[in-house]
# Entry
Amino acid sequence: MGKLGSTLILSYPDILNLRDSLDNLIEEEELGIRTPKKSFVFSSFDELIFDFFICNGNPDPVVYRIDEGRSHIEDRGSTFTDYFFRLIETCDKSKSNGAFKYYWNGEGVIKEPFK
# Structure
């Protein structure tokens, strides 16, 4: 397992089910919070941590996180663009720590270790 965990979902069609997965987590864990209206859940780490933004017309919206066991929504303090730059930097730093790269070959997703 690398720094990003064992499962990071950022792919289609999996991304379409993330909102439902988050709502299920909130209900099961009785977190006492609700997914904000007009939010778009775009990533999940092992279906325990969910990142999302609110669709409010901002071209580079703020990213928020809901984490299993926490009864609040965390402001990640960054924009959607910053989120991905940090993700790329983290992946780059973890190449030597057994991280994998994923890509679509036209037929399916291929997983290969970084070299």
Observations:
- The chain has a mean pLDDT of 78.
- Helices lie at 18-28, 80-93.
- The chain is about 20% helix and 30% strand.
- Residues 8-113 form one domain.
